[in-house]
Automatic annotation (TrEMBL):
One of its GO terms (cellular component) is nucleus. Keywords: ATP-binding, Ligase, Nucleotide-binding. ATP binds at residues 106, 295-299. NCBIfam families: RNA_3prim_cycl (TIGR03399). The gene is rtca. PANTHER family: RNA 3' TERMINAL PHOSPHATE CYCLASE, RNA 3'-TERMINAL PHOSPHATE CYCLASE. The keyword ATP-binding applies. Gene3D superfamilies: RNA 3'-terminal phosphate cyclase domain, RNA 3'-terminal phosphate cyclase, insert domain. Catalyzes the conversion of 3'-phosphate to a 2',3'-cyclic phosphodiester at the end of RNA. The mechanism of action of the enzyme occurs in 3 steps: (A) adenylation of the enzyme by ATP; (B) transfer of adenylate to an RNA-N3'P to produce RNA-N3'PP5'A; (C) and attack of the adjacent 2'-hydroxyl on the 3'-phosphorus in the diester linkage to produce the cyclic end product. Likely functions in some aspects of cellular RNA processing. Function plays an important role in regulating axon regeneration by inhibiting central nervous system (CNS) axon regeneration following optic nerve injury. HAMAP family: RTC (MF_00200). The active site is at 321 (tele-amp-histidine intermediate). GO terms for molecular function: ATP binding; RNA-3'-phosphate cyclase activity. The keyword ATP-binding applies. This is RNA 3'-terminal phosphate cyclase.
Amino acid sequence: MKMDSAAMEIDGSVMEGGGQILRVSAALSCITGSSIKITKIRAGRSTPGLRPQHLSGLQLVSDLCSGSLQGASIGSTDISLTPGKIQSGSHTADTQTAGSVCLLLQVALPCALYADAASQLCLKGGTNAEMAPQIDYTVKVFKPIVEKFGVHFDCDIRMRGFYPKGGGEVMVKVNPVKELQPVIMTERGNITKIHGRAYVAGVLPFKLAKDMSAAAVRAIRREIKELYINIQPFQEKEKSYGSGNGIIIIAESSTGCLFAGSALGKKGVYADKIGIEAAEMLLRNIRHNGCVDEFLQDQLIIFMALAKGTSRIRTGAVTLHTQTAIHIAEQLTQAKFTITKCEDELSSNVTYIIECQGSGAANPNL
């Protein structure tokens, strides 16, 4: 255990002030080997402190880095993590609720990259949950883009889990890296393809999937006339625990950029409305001419901060989540970020370039 340096203090209530601060801080603590103390966790939220999902994420990181974790209990607003050596092999995390497996992956993936060999992560909870990426997004959008940094992982969806029951399970295999490469994504090109899936699981009728799909296609057609839009309706048979419905729509550009819009069914909400919500989200994310959507933006910050060299990514409006991730990354690594506003003379579009001189974190275990 490296006890020499005093723990870095992180204010968990700054900026976005949510679980994301925990995820970025804990992962970077694990990778850099610096102890952290996070205070005022989720101070402004309606249920302050750690929720089951945050707790299982922290325990997973602590397990990954043979660390010691203090203050880790439900409702706790202060924790400290003293990391040890990152351990490859099998690790399990279970939110025991519909807490998001995708958010568990967000905190664990960067750590596992710096292990001495491959890691298997068994993540249990919700695969398609509110206030978090859906697993389909993680696999279809996040994964191909993060591979540009040299990250390689496989994700096997064993069981889908929905709110409120959870019960989903994904198995993720992560290969370690020596170091991460910087990524430049500044030219979007044209949107060349739009596709997706609308699904129902459990006892819900297939008609819901068809209605979500049809409504989404109609909404996108109003704005994008020239592309064939293929949104497949699906009935999830054996692979789901409980009932749920949702839709994810993905747009691809000529330069390999990916964007998504998604929505989840809720009790008493018409299927058409869910389809339209996803379509509008997608359209909003391709109007600005950036190279990533608003959700990928903040998820890439930690990889830019760790990479060796300069990354540049063009985005639409910079989200509070992204600003928060940058703030934490600059506190815990040597990375330096700058954000430049770009006005386009030809259109009313404003984009931003997020540039990062990465810290070049090398894997001492490989």
